[in-house]
């Protein structure tokens, strides 16, 4: 952990030399044909939408740029602003309202004559990579274009190097929907391992050097942690909100989507002016559900580590890095970035996906692991422009110092924003559970 903190601080000191001024030493790694497999984070999804504004700052593109000295040749399924779905924007400070931008983006290079180099699909889980060709007009169709699964298209390109960061949605769907349902919102471990090994074996068979990444604890993202399960009275007394199974505890989570219910008094005791009615099950991730998700992520990561070792692949421990950032933050240029919603600088307006700075930070985690494993000397991305320069403004990076902030826990995602986010995550909210019945593994 101390190594990660030292690395994060040192990244700010990267020199602003043009990459083309010298040959990049990639060690035994070969980036002649680099392919990325993953989900929304690998795709460069930000603030609820897929748009070239963020795609041109995706961590795979930044890795490619640093490893090759080029800014062309790595093809992505670019979408014009405001994106598909439209990216979110801050509509109001008081009340704090976040909603999609007006309009809808359109594909910019849909007719590329070969598969994209970035084959990550927002909403994809590990099984989608090996089995899904179409999703009837969704983001799989936008990116895969009916030409085969993501894995088939990756193999067709015969990559010399491939990054694989997949599995987030195998657990994230349970966290964002507030329901742990085995085989529906949470992927069984055996199924995960079978599909993950298929991905690794296929890429290794075509000769690709590999870098795998672990899955962070999705119960610790702002979407899950921003709203307190308690109301703090002026006296300092904390009164628990009312969940679907009774009074909430400190280990229960109220999801960001609960604001609409809280606004009409649900979950708030009648003595405090609320309705006294409980929050819906979809608005709460209780302690037992969160523990089940975390345990499953640990099982997934054990598989990823084992397969990485078997394939002699670089391993990017995003889980450990995220846990460290939650405790210590990421210090850069005198500022400390944290996972806090809106004010932390690591997560965008949807509370799930990174900001521009967050993507650059992720790229550097990959680069550090690749350098270490393949005896390379790929320079890290200079983070300072993402904090102080044009990279922040052009990518829509929220700077909490720019404006006065209300309490971020009062931020409201409009119903349209919630629907767009769930669509992009491929989350179908299951029917409400019967009282007293729990879908837990």
- Alpha-carbon Rg, integer: 21 Å
Q: State the separation between the terminal residues, measured CA to CA.
A: 31 Å
**Strand portion:** 5-15%
Task: Kindly report the spatial arrangement of strands forming the biggest sheet.
Answer: 1-4-5-12
> How confident overall, as mean pLDDT?
89
- Overall shape: it is globular
Sketch the major β-sheet.
4 strands, parallel
What's the CATH class label?
Answer: Alpha Beta
Low-confidence stretches: 1-21, 392-405, 430-441
CATH second-level architecture:
3-Layer(aba) Sandwich
Give me the CATH fold name.
Rossmann fold
Q: How many β-strands, per DSSP? A: 15
Q: How many separate helices?
A: 17
CATH superfamily: SGNH hydrolase
Structural class: alpha/beta
Task: Explain what the structure shows.
The chain is α/β, with parallel strands linked by helices. The protein has a single domain (2-89, 104-222, 289-399), classed as 3-Layer(aba) Sandwich (Rossmann fold), CATH 3.40.50. 36% of the residues lie in helices and 12% in strands. It contains 17 helices and 15 strands. A four-stranded parallel sheet has the order 1-4-5-12, with helices on both faces. A hairpin with a 2-residue loop joins strand 13 and strand 14 (335-337). It starts with a helix and ends in a 17-residue tail after the last helix. The model is unreliable at 1-21, 392-405 and 430-441 (pLDDT under 50).
């Amino acid at each position: 952990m101390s190594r990660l903190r030292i690395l994060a601080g040192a990244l700010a000191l990267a020199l602003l030399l043009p990459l083309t001024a010298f040959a990049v030493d990639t060690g035994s790694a070969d980036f002649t044909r680099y392919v990325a497999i993953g989900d929304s984070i690998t795709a460069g999804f930000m603030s609820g939408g897929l748009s070239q504004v963020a795609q041109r700052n995706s961590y795979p593109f930044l890795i490619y740029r640093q490893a090759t000295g080029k800014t062309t040749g790595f093809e992505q399924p670019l979408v014009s602003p405001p994106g598909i779905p439209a990216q979110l924007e801050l509509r109001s400070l008081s009340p704090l309202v976040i909603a999609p931008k007006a309009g809808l983006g359109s594909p910019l290079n849909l007719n590329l004559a070969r598969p994209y180099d970035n084959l990550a699909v927002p909403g994809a889980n590990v099984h989608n990579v090996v089995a899904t060709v179409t999703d009837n007009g969704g983001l799989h169709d936008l990116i895969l274009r009916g030409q085969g699964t993501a894995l088939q298209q990756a193999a067709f390109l015969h990559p010399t190097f491939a990054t694989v960061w997949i599995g987030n949605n195998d657990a994230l769907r349970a966290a964002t929907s507030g329901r742990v349902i085995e085989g529906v919102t949470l992927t069984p471990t055996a199924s995960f391992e079978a599909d993950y090994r298929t991905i690794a074996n296929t890429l290794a068979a075509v000769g690709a050097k590999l870098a795998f990444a672990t899955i962070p604890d999705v119960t610790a993202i702002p979407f899950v942690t921003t709203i307190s399960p308690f109301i703090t009275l002026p006296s300092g007394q904390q009164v628990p909100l009312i969940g679907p199974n009774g009074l909430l505890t400190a280990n229960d989570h109220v999801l960001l989507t609960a604001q609409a219910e809280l606004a009409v008094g649900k979950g708030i005791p009648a003595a405090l002016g609320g309705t006294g009615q409980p929050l819906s099950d979809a608005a709460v991730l209780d302690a037992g559900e969160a523990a089940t998700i975390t345990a499953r992520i640990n099982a997934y990561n054990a598989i990823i580590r084992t397969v990485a070792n078997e394939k002699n692949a670089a391993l990017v421990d995003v889980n450990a890095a995220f846990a460290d950032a939650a405790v210590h933050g990421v210090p850069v240029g005198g500022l400390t970035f944290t996972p806090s919603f809106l004010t932390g600088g690591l997560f965008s307006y949807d509370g799930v996906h990174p900001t521009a700075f967050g993507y650059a930070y992720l790229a550097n985690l990959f680069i550090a692991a690749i350098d270490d494993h393949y005896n390379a000397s790929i320079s890290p991305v200079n983070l300072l422009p993402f904090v102080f320069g044009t990279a922040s403004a052009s990518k829509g990076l929220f700077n909490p110092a720019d404006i006065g902030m209300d309490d971020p826990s009062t931020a409201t995602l409009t119903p349209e924003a919630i629907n767009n986010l769930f669509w992009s995550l491929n989350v179908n909210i299951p029917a409400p559970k019967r009282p007293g019945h729990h879908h837990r593994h």
